[in-house]
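Possible race condition, two jobs.
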Amino acid sequence: MGHDAPFLGRGWTFPPVFNAADASLSMVAGVENIAQSLNLLLATLQGSRALLPDFGSNLNQFVFRRSDAQTLEELAEAARFILLHGEPRIVVEDVRSQASADGSLMQLVIAYRVTQTNTRHNHVYPFASLEGSNLAPPPKAGIV
């Protein structure tokens, strides 16, 4: 069995892409379909889909928080819960979050196993952090 086995799923690429030659919609299958599904699940604001109100995540609550150890752990736990309930084709083995040296970018490193094939994969989800404490301080009065 290859990684693109039909039981792993097939769907539109995300974002959707049309082929110029025949105006068909580009499709993705197998493990790549799962990876794109993880991105879509984590990037979609929970409640924004009328017919699937429970689909998506609430990770937007972490955008303006300080990139400290507590926030990183809370982000990883929130992502782990979302993946556990939102992607039935995988078993999440580990979710870690890490911040760049300047704290401007957090990313999730997701280790998972595809249940149907018992193969392990890693996925990195970039999560931007626009922390307010990274802004330059206001100029002192009288100094231009």
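Job #2 (started ~2 s after job #1):
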Amino acid sequence: MADVQNNSDIAAMSFEQALDQLEKIVDDLERGDVPLEQSIRIYERGEALKKHCDTLLSAAEDKVQKIRLGRNGEPVGTESLDPE
């Protein structure tokens, strides 16, 4: 596993990458064959990955909410969430 003591790489991950790593951590912990100290470290990394996924998911939900619909129910445009 990547450097589990330094979670600085998480910020650059896509949602899919972070979710894949989080799933691997869950699998490792569920097997129960990971030493205690390593379990604690990977659990902490899992928490950081979960927070990152939550943040990315929330941003995606905000973008979806910004889609405007016309009278016929079709999208007529979107509003950018990026400050200009």
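The mean pLDDT is 85.
Logs attached separately.
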